[in-house]
Amino acid sequence: MSDKATILLVDDTRTNIELLAGCLQKTYNLKVAMNGKRCLELAESEPVPDLILLDVIMPDMDGYDVCRQLKDNSSTKDIPIMFVTGKDSDEDEELGLQLGAVDYITKPIRPAIVTARVGTQVILKQQSDTLRSMALHDQLTSLFNRHYLIEAANSKVARIKRHGGTLSLMMIDIDYFKLVNDKFGHQAGDTVLRAVASVLSSGSRKEDVVARFGGEEFVVLLDDCSILDADDKAEQLRSLIEQLIPEGISVTASFGIAELDPDGETFEHLLARADQAVYLAKEQGRNCVVQAKSELDIKED
Ligand SMILES: Nc1nc2c(ncn2[C@@H]2O[C@H](COP(=O)(O)OP(=O)(O)OP(=O)(O)O)[C@@H](O)[C@H]2O)c(=O)[nH]1
């Protein structure tokens, strides 16, 4: 994978593509589409573009329509679009900008102007990616933070209520972590947190969300996973953490697991059930996995 930003060039005329590529190919990784349909495909495929240079007048689907579709799709809506077009009236430019384009350049293509304006947009995109990543991740462990977890969980729960499916949640709390800090110091405590985080993320699937929920507490959201599968997974992770011994420090963790009841349960409630299961795991001597009580059992208690 290159560190270069990726730019998608969209134009139905080969000479325009060649001219743009001539300005940009040394600095950027380029993808090329010669019609709107191909642009929509390439915008969603890896490497996802950091910027799209979009012609307006094209057969089948014009650039304004392509722009509308990109902005309507949650996976492409944040890709900046710069129109590069022969349509040079004020109304055209106004429309392009109203549709959400970050810039509007008129043809004939002037290489120095294109290069400078593309450079500015790529820097802005990289800065906004960095800020977004910082807002969603925990600095110490690089896992997702509580804010992202709640956002992701609420959309997963909403999807399951609409389309069906299973979702399990695992809450993990390191045992006697205060003692680790007290005995070995805060820096060693931080090393332990990073080591546990690394076990949790390398032991999870790409679509799972692994988050640091608080101080020494983590949450893993398991897509398409029943409580029985979550139990197996938790047992594997519990055992891996026990074998870790980072910097010679013995560490164990207590696990609470719960499966979403799609009949009306909210994420907050699922979380509360898993939290209660962690509490029971602590009571049962720690370093173990406890399944949360079902809604029914809670009502009967
Ligand atoms: N090193 C380090 N420690 C942290 C961090 N965040 C929270 N802690 C510490 O985590 C400890 C949590 O302690 P407790 O909540 O008493 O829990 P515990 O000692 O793990 O006990 P049990 O959960 O009952 O097994 C506190 O001492 C916090 O100061 C952090 O980012 N780094």
Automatic annotation (TrEMBL):
Its cofactor is Mg(2+). Residues 6-122 form the Response regulatory domain. One of its GO terms (molecular function) is diguanylate cyclase activity. Keywords: Phosphoprotein. It is an enzyme of class 2 (transferase). Transmembrane segments: none annotated. It catalyses: 2 GTP = 3',3'-c-di-GMP + 2 diphosphate. Its EC number is 2.7.7.65. The modification 4-aspartylphosphate is found at residue 55. SUPFAM superfamilies: CheY-like, Nucleotide cyclase. One of its GO terms (biological process) is cell adhesion involved in single-species biofilm formation. One of its GO terms (cellular component) is plasma membrane. SMART domains: GGDEF (SM00267), REC (SM00448). Residues 165-294 form the GGDEF domain. PROSITE patterns: GGDEF (PS50887), RESPONSE_REGULATORY (PS50110). NCBIfam families: GGDEF (TIGR00254). This is diguanylate cyclase. The lineage of its organism: Bacteria, Pseudomonadati, Pseudomonadota, Gammaproteobacteria, Alteromonadales.
